[in-house]
Design brief:
Pfam families: FCD, GntR. It contains nine helices and two strands. The protein is mostly helical and about 220 residues long. A hairpin with a 3-residue loop joins β1 and β2.
């Protein structure tokens, strides 16, 4: 069977999603439907279907008679979300450690070597992409579709804020050390240690975002 091509609204949703994650559509910004139709070369109907998808994912909010805006993630949201995703990704690390075979460990070794290289060179954007790939690899190795589905939904929301953490002084090296701890536990086949290390990694990201918020507030304080 030939694969069914993505519909226009799926393609539009994907492009808008990436623009949101890249910061081209920043939190709180209004989405002008006419301008988006022209930019994406689509009509209003598939665009509006795409917007509905992103509203359902939590990346956009819809206000009656006003339209759609990029979602703004609050400190309360982060406090609520990080403990949950820390538990879920910790469990994914536990299951990945139990199920990984030698070829999986070798592939993760390559990813972690790239992560170390980007950290040494201070390439934050490249580091973030490698970091994301490692998290995805653990979720894939866990081989639990329900776990993957829930984590995927939450990670879309957290991507609105998470990239900022790597700009906190010292955070890049801390993040690297945390990742290496998770990987060391996996190589040692210590499921509980891998789960704890991954959970701590996520919770420390929340701490880093608090530092971002405090620094932003201090710059605005006379």
């Amino acid at each position: 069977m030939r694969p069914v091509p993505n519909s226009l609204h799926d393609e539009a949703a994907s492009r808008l999603r990436e623009q949101i994650f890249a910061g081209a559509l920043p939190p709180g910004s209004f989405l002008d439907e006419a301008a988006l139709c022209e930019r994406l070369a689509i009509s209003r109907t598939p665009l509006r279907e795409a917007l509905k998808v992103l509203v359902a994912e939590g990346l956009l909010r819809h206000e009656p008679r006003r339209g759609c805006f990029v979602a703004e993630i609050t400190e309360r949201d982060l406090d609520d979300l990080f403990p949950v995703i820390a538990l879920l990704e910790g469990r994914a690390a536990h299951e990945a450690t139990r199920k990984a075979v030698a070829a999986d460990v070798a592939a993760l070794e390559v990813l972690h070597e790239r992560l170390q290289q980007f950290a040494a060179e201070g390439l934050i954007a490249d580091y973030y992409e490698a970091n994301y790939a490692i998290h995805e690899a653990f979720i894939t190795l866990a081989d639990n579709r329900w776990l993957a589905q829930v984590i995927g939904d939450l990670r879309k929301i957290l991507r609105l804020a998470r990239a900022q953490t790597l700009h906190v002084p010292g955070r890049l090296q801390q993040s690297l050390a945390e990742h290496l701890a998770v990987f060391a536990a996996l190589k040692a086949r210590d499921c509980d240690a891998a789960e704890e290390a991954m959970r701590n990694h996520l919770l420390r990201q929340r701490d880093a975002l608090r530092d971002v918020a405090r620094n932003q507030q201090s710059r605005l304080t006379p």
